[in-house]
């Protein structure tokens, strides 16, 4: 391509100046979290079912500025034929971050991070779904993060499990998710995006990490556990417990959202 | 009537000593749990214990199961088998198409070796069949029509008119009076209502 | 992943064995299989290692190239992981069959190294904001016999230990332009400090207990496993629950504890071994097929 040497061209790559702001050191101090939120408090969540009329089941979940929409299709005939598929069904997941969901614009095609989140989501949901009731079939879960303000995996787990229940897929239990950000001796439950990345990039301190737990609340079983960073073993065990408490706090909201969806439809005629 | 009880998946409904688990529930450690979000129904069916089940307004997604009667449409035939799309399980329509196969030897119960698929089905026929196997890695659902009540229920003649059955193996076109071979079903009244 | 079919009777046999702390191959629940480590096996790399754990064979090559530092961390280099599931290991990996597993493995490796202490990334910086070393860690699966994660992490640690990065000098000319000069002596290189590189310990829950370094048969008997990346100090850098089952909180804390103990114990002998092997120089005995 001929280039115009006379014109002043910008650099090939550009970065948002927002990324270079000094990490806000105040975020992790004291109880200045969005006004009055304590360290162990989850953000209030809003959940509704049945927004996508074409889907078998769907859900929308909002926690602070994190907004996630999820729809479930199927069970339908499986495309890929493996030996294992014959006895039980398969969960498929397509996890997307909308290009405008993060600070930096993302691509439409599924990136590495999204694939990783898809795998993590399936692993967390699988123990909760009665897959043996759906032999030879696949259940598709589509998740789109509309706005990423931290803890997306945890909220996606909750959102997807509401959508599965709304789709009438048989489940052993609903699955709830909660994330925790460990920074030294303080831990922040359900971190926002700023809290999640915050000092992480700047600090070289010990005991930094992020833990995401998926929980089956009625059996008190952990169906998913993902952690990275660098933590002591006792901190990790403690973090898992804190996350489980956080999950239990979401249960009434999820229950309410599901019951509301059931009530909206007419009750079945008793024969 | 008191408002009906609602539940979400994972809720403990009762002990197995009080009820028999029905649809939308599962057993764990001697208790019955809900596996669906919906209304809790207790029904006495003459047994000692009532059957407890969870129902939703929209029927829970049914999948073809072994022994189920399915309604399907023939899509293609060859000398060894007929390929079909399963449209209904019992009286419940399926949201997605499931493919099935009726092999030559499963068309009728007698004289299995003399069956000719071309004289039993034609593409486009609506067939009642029973699921005999979920199939393995290579095959689809395996279906059979080897019962008097199973076989072709709706078929169109070459003139495009819906034909009338005249025997268990023939149908006639009301316009041209041409006879065509089919494995005809003796339709049971209870299926007609559905 | 490559898997085997195990009958119900075999499952019961394996599970009863695990309950009594005796596994099919005679190991206890916290024992690894026999491990063979060799470093410096591929001449075209800056560092390489081959690890055999049971019948799992892993080859890791590290290549250092000069790249541009990431905008957010101008004073650090970075690591890139790529795991190739070759069709040699199992025909299932043919074509794109191994792609999913490969991405899964490399994503986990990124998470394992996603902290400030595993590798001193600042030592990889040449000129802040402009040039840094990028370490391409390429993992090749030659044979699969269970417990790939653990074998890969050990192979990576060995390969990074073996890695020699050429020394470079930055000279500034009068106009302020910078020039990178490579040392003439090929033996003039920098070594990485791999003391903090974590090792992955995968614990498979079989029955009520959990086993370390599960074989494919044992893996088939377990519904859930926990992956832990542990440093020599006992710090945990990555945790992941894998498989279709769930775990109760008590077994998670038990498994983390075991994982930490086993992982911690793994590092000292590994470092000793690597140093000893290096001391042998060219005279060491070659055990593998690579020369």
From TrEMBL, chain A:
Keywords: Cytoplasm, Exosome, Nucleus, RNA-binding, rRNA processing
Record-annotated membrane-spanning stretches: none
Protein localization: Cytoplasm; Nucleus, Nucleolus
GO terms under cellular component: cytoplasmic exosome (RNase complex); nuclear exosome (RNase complex); nucleolus
Major place of residence: cytoplasm
SUPFAM superfamilies: Ribonuclease PH domain 2-like, Ribosomal protein S5 domain 2-like
Single GO MF annotation: RNA binding
Alphabetical list of InterPro entries matching this protein: ExoRNase_PH_dom1, ExoRNase_PH_dom2_sf, PNPase/RNase_PH_dom_sf, Ribosomal_Su5_D2-typ_SF, RNase_PH
Domain of life: Eukaryota
Example GO biological process: rRNA catabolic process
Quaternary state and interactors: Component of the RNA exosome complex.
Reported function: Non-catalytic component of the RNA exosome complex which has 3'->5' exoribonuclease activity and participates in a multitude of cellular RNA processing and degradation events.
UniProt similarity note: Belongs to the RNase PH family.
Name of the protein: Exosome complex component MTR3
Organism: Chanos chanos (Milkfish)
Name of the gene encoding the protein in the UniProt record: exosc6
TrEMBL record, chain B:
Chief localisation class: cytoplasm
GO biological process: rRNA processing
Subcellular location: Cytoplasm; Nucleus, Nucleolus
InterPro entries per the UniProt record, alphabetical: Csl4, EXOSC1_C, Exosome_cplx_N_dom, NA-bd_OB-fold, S1_domain
This protein's UniProt keywords: Cytoplasm, Exosome, Nucleus, Phosphoprotein, RNA-binding, rRNA processing
Assembly, per entry: Component of the RNA exosome core complex (Exo-9), composed of EXOSC1, EXOSC2, EXOSC3, EXOSC4, EXOSC5, EXOSC6, EXOSC7, EXOSC8 and EXOSC9; within the complex interacts with EXOSC6. The catalytically inactive RNA exosome core complex (Exo-9) associates with the catalytic subunit EXOSC10/RRP6. Exo-9 may associate with DIS3 to form the nucleolar exosome complex, or DIS3L to form the cytoplasmic exosome complex. Exo-9 is formed by a hexameric base ring consisting of the heterodimers EXOSC4-EXOSC9, EXOSC5-EXOSC8 and EXOSC6-EXOSC7, and a cap ring consisting of EXOSC1, EXOSC2 and EXOSC3.
Name under which the protein is recorded: Exosome complex component CSL4
Organism of provenance: Chanos chanos (Milkfish)
Protein encoded by which gene: exosc1
Automatic annotation (TrEMBL), chain C:
UniProt GO cellular component terms: cytoplasmic exosome (RNase complex); nuclear exosome (RNase complex); nucleolus
InterPro entries: ExoRNase_PH_dom1, ExoRNase_PH_dom2, ExoRNase_PH_dom2_sf, Exosome_comp_Rrp42_subfam, PNPase/RNase_PH_dom_sf, Ribosomal_Su5_D2-typ_SF
Organism of this sequence: Chanos chanos
Domain Exoribonuclease phosphorolytic: from-to ranges: 32-166, 196-261
Chief localization: cytoplasm
Biological processes per GO annotation: exonucleolytic trimming to generate mature 3'-end of 5.8S rRNA from tricistronic rRNA transcript (SSU-rRNA, 5.8S rRNA, LSU-rRNA); nuclear mRNA surveillance; nuclear polyadenylation-dependent rRNA catabolic process; rRNA catabolic process; TRAMP-dependent tRNA surveillance pathway; U1 snRNA 3'-end processing; U4 snRNA 3'-end processing; U5 snRNA 3'-end processing
Family the entry assigns: Belongs to the RNase PH family.
Protein known as: Exosome component 7
Signal peptide positions on this chain: none
CDD domains named among the record's database cross-references: RNase_PH_RRP42 (cd11367)
């Amino acid at each position: 391509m001929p280039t115009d040497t006379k014109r002043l061209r910008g650099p090939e790559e550009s970065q948002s100046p927002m990324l270079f702001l000094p990490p806000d050191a105040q975020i992790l101090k004291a109880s200045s979290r969005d006004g009055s939120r304590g360290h162990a408090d989850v953000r209030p969540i809003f959940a509704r079912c049945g927004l996508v009329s074409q889907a078998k089941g769907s859900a929308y979940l909002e926690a602070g500025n994190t907004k996630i929409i999820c729809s479930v299709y199927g069970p339908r005939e499986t495309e890929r034929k493996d030996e294992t598929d014959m006895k039980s069904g398969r969960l498929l997941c397509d996890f997307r971050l909308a290009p405008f969901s993060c600070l930096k614009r993302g691509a439409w095609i599924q990136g590495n991070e999204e694939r990783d989140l898809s795998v993590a989501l399936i692993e967390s949901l699988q123990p909760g779904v009665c897959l043996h009731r759906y032999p030879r079939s696949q259940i598709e879960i589509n998740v789109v993060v509309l706005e990423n303000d931290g803890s997306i995996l945890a909220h996606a787990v909750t959102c997807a499990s509401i959508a599965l229940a709304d789709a009438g897929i048989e489940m052993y239990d609903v699955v709830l998710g909660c994330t925790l950000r460990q920074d030294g001796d303080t831990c922040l439950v359900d971190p926002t995006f700023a809290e999640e990345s915050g000092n992480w990039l700047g600090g070289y301190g010990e005991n930094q990490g992020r833990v995401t737990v998926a929980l089956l609340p009625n059996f008190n079983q952990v169906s998913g556990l993902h952690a990275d960073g660098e933590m002591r073993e006792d901190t990790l065990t403690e973090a898992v417990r804190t996350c489980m408490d956080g999950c239990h706090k979401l249960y009434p909201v999820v229950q309410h959202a599901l019951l509301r969806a059931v009530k909206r439809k007419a009750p079945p005629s008793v024969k | 009537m008191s408002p009906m009880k609602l539940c979400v998946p994972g809720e403990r409904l009762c002990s197995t000593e009080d009820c028999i688990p029905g649809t939308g529930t599962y057993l764990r450690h001697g208790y019955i749990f809900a596996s669906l979000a919906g209304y809790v129904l207790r029904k006495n069916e003459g047994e000692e214990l009532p059957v407890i089940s969870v129902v939703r307004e929209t029927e829970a997604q049914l999948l073809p199961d072994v022994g189920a009667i399915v309604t399907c449409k023939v899509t293609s035939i060859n000398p060894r088998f007929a390929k079909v799309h399963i449209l209904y399980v019992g009286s419940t329509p399926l949201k997605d198409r499931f493919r099935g196969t009726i092999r030559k030897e499963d068309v009728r119960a007698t004289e299995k070796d003399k069956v000719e698929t071309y004289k039993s089905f034609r593409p486009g026929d609506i067939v009642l069949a029973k699921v005999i196997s979920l199939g393995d890695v290579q095959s689809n659902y395996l279906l059979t029509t080897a019962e008097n009540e199973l076989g072709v229920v709706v078929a169109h003649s070459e003139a495009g008119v819906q034909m009338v059955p005249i025997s268990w193996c023939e149908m006639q076109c009301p316009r041209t009076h041409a006879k065509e071979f089919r494995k005809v079903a003796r339709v049971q009244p209870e299926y007609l209502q559905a | 992943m490559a898997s085997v079919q195990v009958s119900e009777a075999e499952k019961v046999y394996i599970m009863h064995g695990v309950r009594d702390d005796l596994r099919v191959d005679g190991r206890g629940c916290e024992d690894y299989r026999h491990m063979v480590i060799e470093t410096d096996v591929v001449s075209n790399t800056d560092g390489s290692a081959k690890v055999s754990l049971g019948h799992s064979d892993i080859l890791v090559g590290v290549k250092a190239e000069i790249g541009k530092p990431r905008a957010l961390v101008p004073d650090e280099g970075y690591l890139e992981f790529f795991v190739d599931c070759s069709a040699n290991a199992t025909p299932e990996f043919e074509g794109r069959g191994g792609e999913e597993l490969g991405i899964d493995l490399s994503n986990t490796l990124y998470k394992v190294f996603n902290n400030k202490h595993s590798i001193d990334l600042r030592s990889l910086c040449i000129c802040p904001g402009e040039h840094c070393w990028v370490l391409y860690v390429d993992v090749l699966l030659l044979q699969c016999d269970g417990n790939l994660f653990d074998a890969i992490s050990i192979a990576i640690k060995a390969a990074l230990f073996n890695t020699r990065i050429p020394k470079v000098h930055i000279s500034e000319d009068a106009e302020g332009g910078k020039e990178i000069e490579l040392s003439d002596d090929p033996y003039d290189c920098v070594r990485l400090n791999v003391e903090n590189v974590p090792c992955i310990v995968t614990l498979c829950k079989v029955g009520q207990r959990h086993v370390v370094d599960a074989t494919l048969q044992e893996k088939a008997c377990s519904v859930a496993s926990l992956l832990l990346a542990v440093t020599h100090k006992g710090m945990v850098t990555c945790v992941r629950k894998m498989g279709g089952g769930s775990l109760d909180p008590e077994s998670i804390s038990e498994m983390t504890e075991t994982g930490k103990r086993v992982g911690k114990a793994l590092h000292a002998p590994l470092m000793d071994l690597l140093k000893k092997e290096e001391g042998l120089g060219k005279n060491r005995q070659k055990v593998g097929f690579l020369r």
